[in-house]
Amino acid sequence: MTDEERMQGMIEATRILALTMMKEGTNPLEVAAVWVQTGLSLYKDTLPPEAYDMMIDTISDLRGNIPGGNEEMPTENDTVH
Questions:
Q1: What is the pLDDT at residue 23?
Q2: Other beta carbons within 10 Å of 59
Q3: Which helix H or strand E contains 63, and what residues bound it?
């Protein structure tokens, strides 16, 4: 498995979990807030301070290039697998 395939698998698993949580009534903004906080904590715990600051700056610089917004939110009739 390539790094890209592994990353795509993680993205898909995360997306399925998010959709399941939202279908069960969790507010999408709560899901996003927890995942952003978790991701930033992982960066902060793993990277040296200068690299962490660079990562945060890069994330901010790329904020207009974040994919998304094309998926509909699940409804009570949707099945999430």
A1: 95
A2: 14
A3: none
The residue ranges of every structural domain in the chain are 3-61
Nearest by Cα to 28 from 66, 73, 80:
73
Q: Alpha carbon of 39 to those of 4, 23, 42, 72: distances in Å?
A: 19, 23, 5, 24
What is the value of pTM for the model shown? 0.67
pLDDT of residue 66: 80
Phi and psi, residue 24, nearest 5°: -85, 0
Q: Which pLDDT tens digit goes with each residue over 2-57?
A: 999 999 999 999 999 999 999 999 999 999 999 999 999 999 999 999 999 999 99
Compute the distance between CA of residue 29 and CA of residue 24 in angstroms, rounded to an integer. 14
Other CB atoms within 10 Å distance of the CB of residue 81: 5
d(CA 50, CA 47): 8
The span from the CA of 2 to the CA of 7, in Å, is 9
